[in-house]
Amino acid sequence: MTPLLQLDTVTKAWRTPAGLVQAVRGVSLAVQAGETVALVGESGCGKSTLARLALRLTPVDAGRILFDGQDITHASERALTAIRPRLQMVFQDASAALNPRRTIGQAIDDPLRVHGRPNRAARVQALLGEVGLDASLASRFPHEVSGGQRQRVGIARALALDPAVVIADEPVSALDVSVRAQVINLMSSLARQRGLAMVFIGHDLAVVRHLADRIAVMHLGEIVEAAPRQRFWSQAAHPYSQALIASVPAATPAAARARGPAPLAGDLPSPLAPPPGCSFHTRCPRAIATCQHQSPPLIRLAPDHTARCHLLTHPVLDAAASTGHR
Amino acid sequence: MTHFARRLRRDVPALAGLVTLVLVGAIALAAPWLYPGDPQDMVARPLIWPFQDAALPLGTDRLGRDLAAGLAHGARVSLLVGFAAAAAAVLVGVTVGCLAGWFGGLVDDSLMRVTDAVQTVPGFVLALALVAVMGPGVGTVILAIAVSSWTGTARVVRAEVSSWRERDLVAACRVMGMGSGEILIRQILPNIASPVIVLASVVVAVAILVESALSFLGLGDPALVSWGSMIAEGRGLLRRAWFVAAVPGVAIIITVVSVSLAGEAVTAALDPRDRQ
Predict the structure, then answer these.
(1) How far apart are CA A147 and CA A188, in angstroms?
(2) What's the whole-number mean pLDDT along residues A35-49?
């Protein structure tokens, strides 16, 4: 089956006064119709850049972006008008993505108006209902409602054009912990009801735990591991994925003690000068000599499970390293 | 509109400015009916002091012309020049600023270098030179003031637009397929209206002053009475009859101050965040 949204070895570097920042380095990712893919990684790993590349908000340096089999890597803004309604985005901070001078009703109406959809007023009311907002909020301004309500407006606006794929860039990171669960549940039930494909970007595995069909882990501009949810939680192969899983808060103190200290030390290396070899070797508890100078290949552990790690092709060393570590 | 009225009731200076400006505007509009005939006609003996004669409340000048009539007719010129020049300057400034801020790169560089060049010439000197070359007249004065005062607006608008361009709001608009023109005009411009209106009120005030100064120097429209030319008339009489220069002078001060205050009132009225 052709994936709905496909990124093929996409690369992007930002030119900054300090030098070239390698934000996204040869990322490939395919999203099938109706599935939710979680893209997880620390701040600065290139997740948001990847979202902007996929939406063609930023030009790609190299690689291809395909939507429904059609190459849109260099499609003109005019050619994209046909694609845009089917590929939408939910932003991290709804107060930055909504116009402070326009009412909530106008914000949700904007995409309908731009694309000349009929029965706009009724659609706006229906969308407000769908995201659990009262119809009376249509005449309010974004600053007059709560953060959770604002993000619901952002979701309603993204859904207005009946998209096939929604890319959500950390949609709950700016929200109070108390309303995060509500917004996540809303997004997952909307995705299910509408048969939406969703790319859910986050830095917290706990948030995407129940939402994603598939999980992709990003580290310094690369996807280091991708696997279906169940397989990921039980058989994550990359040391970075294992470290992320280990850092998810445990439900009970006993469980936390049993797990031991978090294995990940240090910060993300500078994307201005990525370390040679495996980008993770500076922080990896099980790094071997090869990791320091040779970039690890993509290894297919199962038809739908890939990882980039030398340990997977050096199983003996892997065992020795891990016993030595423990 | 109700929240505007409520806000104004709390903000007395803004209310005073707005009321005064409306009053000056009304006098300017009604001048041909309030004081029919030519305000340059001699109507009484010269140099009657203000408040001496009920028919001539502000007195007469050296030639026996009614100062009140001159003031009312002069308001037409001052306000016309002030608002027309400001409108033209803001229109040019917003257009240049939007193009430079939105497109960036070469467009930005070339437009901003032109702006720099205009800005290095003192505004009044530029206006003076233009009027001297093109000859006096209301249209020339408006043009001269507009040409020298659009740069501030262009700079502010450019800075605001290039800052808004990077925000998620613009990304959201592009994701929904909105064109550049609509993003600029419908989404960004309303958000940068406040500084533009404040600047516009300053340009109106400066334009009124520049017009007065040009008229004072005899470079205004010789066929029309203006506050500046009235001050020029009174210049020689400062010792004997200071009121001849002071009456139009006070009118300029009051109008300029009320324009500034009214600008703030309008800004506040446009901000939805102020609705409480």
Answers:
(1) 19
(2) 90
* Cα–Cα separations (whole angstroms), residue A235 to A97, A228, A271, A307: 38, 10, 28, 11
Q: Are A91 and B173 an interchain contact pair (Cβ–Cβ within 8 Å)?
A: no
* Category of A25 on φ-ψ map: left (φ > 0), alpha (ψ -120 to 50) or beta: beta
Q: What integer pLDDT is reported at residue B269 of this predicted model?
A: 77
Q: For chain B, how long is the longest CA-to-CA vector?
A: 74
Which domains can be identified in chain A, with CATH numbers? 5-325 (3.40.50.300)
Provide the CB-side half-sphere exposure for A214 (13 A, CA): 21
Q: Which residues of A touch B191 (CB under 8 A)?
A: 99-101
Residue A294 clears pLDDT 60, i.e. is over it: yes
Closest chain A residue to the Cα of B176, Cα to Cα: A111
Is it the case that residue A324 has pLDDT exceeding 60?
Answer: no
Q: Does A80 touch chain B (CB under 8 A)?
A: yes
Q: Which of A58, A89, A99 to mutate against chain B (most B CBs within 10 Å)?
A: A99
Q: Do A120 and A111 contact (CB within 8 A), yes or no? A: no
- Distance, CA of A182 to CA of A188 (rounded, Å): 10
Do the strands A298-302 and A87-90 form a parallel or antiparallel pair, or are they unpaired?
unpaired
Contact B168 A96 (CB under 8 A): yes
Pick the CATH number of B2-36+54-274 from 3.30.720.120, 1.50.10.20, 1.10.599.10, 1.10.3720.10: 1.10.3720.10
Min Cα separation B193/chain A (Å): 11
Tell me the whole-structure pTM to 2 decimals: 0.82
Which of A96, A99, A114 lies nearest to residue B177, judging by beta carbons? A114
Residues contacting A122, CB < 8 A, separation 6+ = none
DSSP, residue by residue, A178-222: HHHHHHHHHHHHHHHHHT-EEEEEES-HHHHTTT-SEEEEEETTE
CA dihedral A271, A273, A279, A285 (to 10 degrees): -100
Among the residues of A32-176, which ranges form H helices? 47-54, 77-80, 94-97, 104-114, 120-130, 147-159
Contacts of B253 (CB under 8 A, 6+ apart): none
Decide: A150 and A95 in contact? Cβ < 8 Å. Answer: yes
B193-251: per-residue pLDDT in tens? 888 988 898 888 888 888 888 888 888 888 888 888 888 888 888 888 888 889 999 99
Q: Closest partner residue to A91 among B168, B178, B187, by Cβ?
A: B168
Q: pLDDT tens digit string along A85-121? A: 999 999 999 989 999 999 999 999 999 999 999 999 9
Query: Is residue B128 within 8 Å of residue B70, measured between CB atoms?
Result: no
Chain A positions in Cβ-Cβ contact with residue B192 (cut-off 8 Å): none
Q: State the Cα–Cα distance between residues B231 and B214, nearest whole angstrom.
A: 11
Selecting from A99, A111, A144 the residue whose C-beta is nearest the C-beta of B169 gives: A99
